[in-house]
Structure formats: C-alpha cells, structure tokens
Amino acid sequence: MARSGAPVQDPDVARPDPRHGGHGLRSWYGRHITAVMCAAVVICAAAVVVVVKESRSHPAPAQAAAAAAPLRYLGVYEPGSPHSYANVDRFTQTVGRSPNLVLYYSGWPERFKTAFAKTAAAHGATTLVEMDPTKVSLDRIANGAYDPYLVSYARAVAKFGKRVVISFGHEMNGYWYTWSYTHASPASFVAAWRHIVTVFRQHGARNVT
Q1: Stated pTM of the model
Q2: Dihedral over alpha carbons 196, 202, 205, 206 (to 10 degrees)
Q3: Same domain, 79 and 51
Q4: How many Cβ atoms are within 10 Å of 96's Cβ, its own excluded?
Q5: Are residues 81 and 138 in the same domain?
Q6: Which of 43, 66, 83, 157 is deepest in the core (most CB within 10 A)?
C-alpha cells in the first residue's frame, strides 16, 4: 500500500536509475522513444481526419466570418431634425461618411414624421425615434388612455413600410424628466413601454425594432 500523498508508480514501467546520472535517463528515453513517436503519429492522424471532416461539412473560415459579420452603425442626431435633413447632410460632408442611423426626438403626442423617415431612407439610413412621454402619466399610457394616439402612430409607421427603431423615455434613470425615477415608479415605466409595444404589434407595425 502506498503512503498517503506518495506518487503511485506503475510496476511495469521502467524508471531511470538516478545512480547512473544522465546515462540512465538517456537509456530510459531510448527504450521508450519509439512508443512515444507512435502515439504522436496516431494523434496527428486523428487530428487530420477531424479537420478534413470539418472542412467538408462547414464553409471556409473566411466565408463563415463574412456571413456572420455584424452590421455596424454610425448614428447621429443633429439639431433641426426632423424638420430638416440639412444638418445631417452637413455631418456627412464633414466626416466623409453617411450615418445609417438617424435620430429625432418625438414629444407626446407628436405624429410620426414620415417625410423625415423617407428622406433618411433615401440616404441609406434607418430612422430612430426617441418617443418621450413629456408630462404624461405612465399609468394612463399602460391603461390605454392614449391608445388612439398610439394606434395612429403605429399605423403610420406600418404604412411607411421600411424599418424604424423606436425608443421610449430616454434617460429614465435620471431625475430631470417627468417619466424618470423620481417622478414615476420603475413598474409604471415598464408597464407603459410594454403596452406601447403591444399596441404596435396589434396594428401591424412589424417593421419596428
């Protein structure tokens, strides 16, 4: 029985004799080098088989990387939006690249700015609307009090047809807006936001993110 903590040795495996110094080590390695090389060859052969099978069942790494490449966004908000696209054009000329995400802020109960969204789309950009419930009760939004407005908005977005991104109540973690945490509860905010999403889905605005 081996002592606790002592290494267990295989009696069938020869060990180098420390009394012979380096000669003993070389002798031991010489006796076992063939077995080691054979094992290495078998492992390499197995690896080659796996790589060949993988290459046949999957596209080349370059192709896979190209297919999975994420869409990159350059987003911008410029003063004057959504009444004018001029400052966005000026931004494009200044930086030498067109944004593909253009933001405008929408107070309650402003209508969807279809003309601005069409202009953005013509420039290769998706419109991002920051819908803000200024001086509006979040609980009343959640209870359906503003559904006529939301239904009208959802239908306008659906009719536009191209993709639109909608955000709700930005900077809700601050204290400076009527919908922020010092003026409304997190539960009320979540309920209002979920109700808006539900209304949009019910009225065919499937082009909204």
Answers
A1: 0.67
A2: 110
A3: no
A4: 6
A5: yes
A6: 157
